[in-house]
Design brief:
The chain is mainly α. It has helices at residues 7-10, 21-24, 29-32, 52-64, 70-76, 81-92, 108-120, 130-134, 153-164, 175-182, 185-197.
Length: 222
Amino acid sequence: MACAAPAFAQQGVPERIPDTMEARVAACIGCHGDKGRGVENVYFPRLAGKPAGYLYNQLVAFREGRRKYVPMNYLLEYLPNAYLMRMAEYFAAQNPAPLAHARPNAGARQLRDGQRIVTGGLPGKKIPACIACHGAELTGREPGIPGLLGLRADYVSAQLGAWRYGVRTALAPDCMQFVASSLSEPEVAAVAAYLASLPTPGARPAPRGGPRLPLACGSQPQ
């Protein structure tokens, strides 16, 4: 005699979803895209391929309120450190093709000013070049410095503004708070526009080590 199918199968109940990290972070897709690829929305950045240490620090900062965005603060409020690290390692390991972004609406002079700051810094204000910390290709450095490419100008500007006004803070010494608070509004706009004008490479973050950072930075101890 043939065996009857289980009741749940007869009723069309789907099988249990696999208990994998990919399934667990499915809630992140709506804002950050499949595998953290990114989305068209200006304020939801790409997560894929960023250093795990950087992503972990941001998750902890949202959980502890050092970064303020209510949906993220709420979602992460009760998650332990070990689980946040697993999330960070998952997204760090992903490498989906980047989204194509439209070039920012910026003039040639603004882009030149941005390039000057990104590649040479502002010695008069003791602000180092962005490439001194984020790497010559601006793809970040392990374990805690993110890449700066593939981000919209408005997002970069908003994050620099958040550091300037204390809405976003990092582990002490907070090197980015010093940098952002020392930039003028036109300088912020120029940096954001120049970074957003660059193509997004498939390169991964540079390995740990390399040139010594020009500023003490709690997120990247040396």
